[in-house]
């Protein structure tokens, strides 16, 4: 198999960009020969289960099928005492109808896409909420591929621990506004530093210009859904929205595979295993590192639980087991491997970075307020990413006044008050207030934190 030309395109740049991660990894950070070969191969892998689903079912029908959930195709979920989820299969239908998992999906590419001739296929919280009951007729008429898809995602791996899922989701909510700052200006903006996974994003036209804020809102809805209490249980919004994103990625691949302008020799598969796993690392490993840069106290137990949550989310999205991070130590090493062989930034990197910094212009009225919000975004980005990364992104470096302000606030809130009796409840309540205020400013109902 020919390795796409983007792999190790500029080793001097990528090693320099990945140097902080290499130092965190310590001895043994470099990939072995087998690991290096796996990285090359991952650029040409896709999510085979979702790809088979897309081949078998028209896009508009997929939207309804995924929103309706497994019950609509005759599957029921049971949870015996002390045992993980299991699925009751209709007679005569097995996992072999579609085939094994082979590749993954990224959250960063969760943008509207169209399969040829099918129109736009969008992930939407309202669409999920309004598609709870498809009726018993749907079970009889659903394609075998839909049943097989749901069977596969309901067969949870043995390593999934419900207690860790609960703790990890709760920790994410307790991080409050700092989680949102990190995801926007550390994880997302930092991900733009390399051109690796940006071309599919740009081609959808949904992460630049006036669409940036809209997509940030939709990603925030998804993030709140997967971190809500029980949000990853089958039938809940986090579970269903995650599957929507997974299928969207398969639709992107199907469309771009037929696009004669897609340069496979340079880029590999449009949404590939390598980039999906790297993006998963941005939402897990990088997320925790950047939280600590803002002075947030992240205990070992919370860090382990957060990595567990995102490993399960990655699995739900089709990321192959070999690329799931599971622990911070493993996550840092994987992220170092990806970044140290990623291509340098390009025009897409700089255009997306500019759009992200400017998105607050759509949120706040008045020239002075907008200028303040831009400077605040540049300040915290400079603190989280550093001078060299800001240069790579074509952004001006600013003194990190806002980042240092967050450090001071978190020393009081998370390191002092958070350790007191009732401190966890205090941080959770503060986080929920921040989330509700942000969603109210956006004019979006926020029910993610409410138990059902």
Question: How would you describe this structure to a colleague?
Answer:
The chain has 452 residues and is mainly alpha-helical. It folds into 2 domains: 11-45 and 160-442, no CATH class; 48-154, no CATH class. The protein has helices at 11-25, 33-42, 48-56, 59-68, 125-129, 136-141, 144-154, 162-174, 177-191, 198-204, 211-226, 237-257, 264-267, 273-283, 285-293, 300-316, 328-339, 347-358, 367-385, 387-392, 401-413, 423-442; strands at residues 76-78, 86-88, 113-115, 119-121. Strands 1-2 form a two-stranded antiparallel sheet. A two-stranded antiparallel sheet has the order 3-4. α14 packs across α17 and α19 packs across α21 (401-413). It is globular, with a radius of gyration of 21 Å.
Quick tags:
2 domains, mainly alpha, single chain, two-stranded antiparallel ribbon, 22 helices, two-stranded antiparallel sheet
In short:
By secondary structure, the chain is mostly helical. The chain is 58% helix and 3% strand.
Helix and strand run? HHHHEEEEHHHHHHHHHHHHHHHHHH
| Mass-distribution shape | globular
Model regions low in confidence, pLDDT < 50 over at least 5 residues: 80-140
First-last Cα distance? 49 Å
Structural class: mainly alpha
Please give the count of helices: 22
Mean pLDDT: 85
Largest sheet: 2 strands, antiparallel
Biggest sheet strand line-up: 1-2
Number of strands: 4
Strand content: under 5%
Q: Taking Cα atoms only, what radius of gyration do you get, to the nearest Å?
A: 21 Å
Q: Domains counted in the coordinates: how many?
A: 2
Helix content: 55-70%
């Amino acid at each position: 198999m020919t390795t796409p030309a983007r792999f190790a395109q500029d080793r001097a740049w990528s090693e320099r960009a990945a140097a902080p991660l290499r130092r965190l990894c310590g001895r043994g950070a470099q990939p072995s020969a087998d690991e290096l070969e796996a990285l090359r191969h991952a650029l040409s892998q896709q999510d085979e289960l979702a790809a088979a689903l897309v081949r078998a079912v028209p896009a508009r029908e997929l939207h309804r099928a995924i929103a309706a959930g497994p019950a609509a195709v005759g599957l029921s979920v049971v949870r015996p005492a002390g045992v993980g989820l299991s699925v009751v299969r209709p007679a005569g239908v097995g996992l072999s109808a579609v085939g094994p998992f082979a590749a993954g999906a990224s959250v960063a590419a969760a943008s509207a896409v169209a399969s040829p001739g099918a129109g736009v296929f969008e992930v939407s919280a309202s669409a999920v909420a309004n598609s709870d009951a498809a009726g018993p007729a749907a079970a009889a008429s659903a394609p075998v591929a839909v049943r097989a898809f749901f069977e596969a995602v309901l067969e949870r791996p043995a390593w999934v621990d419900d207690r860790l899922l609960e703790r990890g989701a709760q920790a994410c909510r307790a991080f409050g506004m700092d989680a949102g700052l990190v995801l926007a200006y550390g994880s997302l903006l930092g991900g733009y530093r390399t051109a690796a996974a940006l071309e599919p994003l740009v081609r959808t036209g949904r992460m630049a210009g006036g669409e940036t804020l809209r997509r940030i809102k939709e990603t925030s809805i998804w993030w709140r859904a997967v971190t809500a209490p029980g949000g990853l249980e089958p039938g809940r919004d986090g579970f269903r929205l995650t599957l929507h994103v997974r299928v969207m990625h398969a639709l992107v691949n199907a469309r771009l595979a037929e696009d004669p302008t897609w340069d496979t020799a340079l880029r590999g598969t449009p949404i590939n295993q390598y980039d999906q796993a790297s993006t998963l690392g941005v939402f897990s490993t990088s997320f925790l590192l950047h939280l600590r840069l803002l002075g947030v106290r992240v205990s070992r137990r919370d860090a382990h639980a957060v990595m567990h949550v995102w490993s399960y989310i990655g699995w739900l999205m089709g990321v192959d087991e070999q690329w799931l991070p599971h622990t911070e130590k493993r996550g840092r090493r994987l992220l170092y491997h990806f970044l140290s062989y990623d291509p340098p930034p390009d025009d897409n990197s700089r255009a997306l970075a500019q759009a992200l910094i400017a998105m607050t212009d759509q949120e706040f009225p008045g020239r002075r307020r907008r200028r303040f919000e831009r400077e605040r975004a540049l300040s915290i980005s400079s603190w989280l990413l550093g001078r060299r990364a800001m240069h790579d992104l074509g952004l001006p470096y600013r003194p990190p006044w806002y980042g240092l302000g967050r450090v001071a606030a978190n020393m009081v809130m998370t390191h002092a008050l958070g350790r007191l009796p009732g401190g966890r409840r205090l941080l959770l309540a503060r986080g929920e207030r921040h989330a509700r205020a942000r969603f109210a400013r956006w004019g979006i109902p926020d029910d993610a934190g409410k138990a059902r």
